[in-house]
Amino acid sequence: MQNLLETLGNFIGQTAFMNLTWGNFIMIGVACFFLYLAIAKQYEPLLLLPIAFGMLLVNIFPNIMIEPDKAENGIGGLLHYFFLLDEWSILPSLIFMGVGAMTDFGPLIANPKSFLLGAAAQFGIYSAYFFAIFLGFNDKAAAAISIIGGADGPTSIFLASKLGQTSLLGPIAVAAYSYMALVPIIQPPIMKLLTTEKERKIKMEQLRPVSKRERILFPIIVTIIVCLILPETAPLVGMLMLGNLFRESGVVKQLTETASNALMYIVVILLGTSVGATTSAQAFLTWDTIKIVALGLIAFAFGTAAGVLFGKIMCKVTGGKVNPLIGSAGVSAVPMAARVSQKVGAEADPTNFLLMHAMGPNVAGVIGTAVAAGTFMAIFG
Fold first, then answer.
1. What is the rounded CA–CA span in Å between residue 54 and residue 30?
2. Does residue 113 sit in helix, strand or coil?
3. How many other C-beta atoms lie within 10 A of the C-beta of residue 348?
4. What pTM, to 2 d.p., does this model score?
């Protein structure tokens, strides 16, 4: 009987119930809420579902992220090895290649003025940098945090790793990906606040056709120019443009399909679960995390507002030919932000079709966020 009780006691002692803190239970609740948003509300489930499940796993079984030198058997946790691919910038770069292979750069080529809207939306990044300095973060930490304003998870991970801010990488990545997933909730109120109904109803002229030669030359020229000026952006901009060159060249259909489908989804699983697994209660429930989440929201709101306001300026300059709503797509969340521009425009006028016009600033935002990251690396790297 005594042996039975001892065995039962040992078993109970090994269960997670005996080792969890109140913080773990809070984070498990947050993970379940994110799972609800991903499954029931379908808020970018491809991103939110693996992140939420990684969050759930690490707060039930922290050793799934244990480093080899801290493990009794010298073998690290499963998600620790996934996370190394984030730290080494492998997964963020592969994500960019997949985005390039999936995305039509034609609207940006057809309307180069879209670059201005993408640049305007980066205001959120630079404003967040100064806010972060004000709140007590050092230069490198502030730079890493500020990229959240671009709603660009891969670039946030890339920059935090390059600047040695691995202790903040988890909160930064989770905030960036969460705001990417919540674009349909965060952006519309800002867009409607800053525009009139008349402006939202503006119909834009159809974009000119883009030749195959232009589509092929664009990724090559952008790579040469951007990487010559900011060589530190080569892993991101280079992979983005390589993926797009796969798509537009028309000679490597198999590579295009692999980069935009199978490889992309594998990378999303590895990156999402590993990012979620950085949110253990001990690491995540801190004042710095609260500051980072708040700064990310401020930066994203400022970036959206700056894009819309610059869209209003372009509307005035062009005599009402530009719908200011497409300026909100200047953040890097592709293609979610462009879809939101389309949705808000269609609410004002169901016959209005802004999606392709919004894709121009959206692609420009991806490039702009990578350039902002390269600028910070050039200064602080």
1. 12
2. coil
3. 18
4. 0.89
CA pair distance 197, 345, nearest whole angstrom: 9
Spatial distance between the Cα atoms of 256 and 215, rounded to a whole number of angstroms: 15
CA–chain centroid gap for 166, Å, is: 17
> ∠ CA(110), CA(96), CA(189), 5° rounding?
70
8 A C-beta contact, residue 221 and residue 105: no
Count of other CB atoms within 10 angstroms of residue 317? 11
Phi-psi region of 35 (alpha: psi -120 to 50; beta: other; left: phi over 0): alpha
∠ CA 136-142-134, rounded to 5°: 35
As a whole number of angstroms, the distance between CA 376 and CA 140 comes to 8
**Helices (H), ranges, 103-230:** 106-110, 114-120, 123-134, 139-146, 153-162, 166-181, 183-194, 197-200, 212-229
d(C-alpha 360, C-alpha 107), whole Å: 5
Other beta carbons within 10 angstroms of residue 190's beta carbon come to 18
> Which residues, 6+ apart, have CB-to-CB distance to 59 below 8 Å?
20, 24, 27, 28, 31, 279, 280, 281
pLDDT in tens, the chain (381 residues): 667 666 666 666 666 666 788 899 999 999 999 999 889 988 778 888 999 999 999 999 989 999 999 888 888 999 999 999 988 889 999 999 999 999 999 999 999 999 999 999 899 899 999 999 999 999 999 999 999 887 788 898 899 989 988 888 888 888 888 888 788 889 999 999 999 999 999 999 989 999 999 999 999 999 999 999 999 999 999 999 999 999 999 999 999 999 999 999 999 999 999 989 988 888 888 888 889 989 888 888 999 999 999 999 999 999 999 999 999 999 888 888 999 999 999 999 999 999 999 999 999 999 999 999 999 999 987
CB burial of residue 213 (10 Å; 0-12, 13-18, 19+): exposed
**CA 62-67-73 angle, 5° bins:** 95
| Rounded (5°) CA angle 329-318-312 | 45
Question: Which residues touch 129 (CB under 8 Å, ≥6 apart)?
Answer: 142, 143, 145, 146, 376
Is the Cβ–Cβ distance between 327 and 120 less than 8 Å? yes
Q: Which residue is associated with the tokens 């232009």?
A: 214
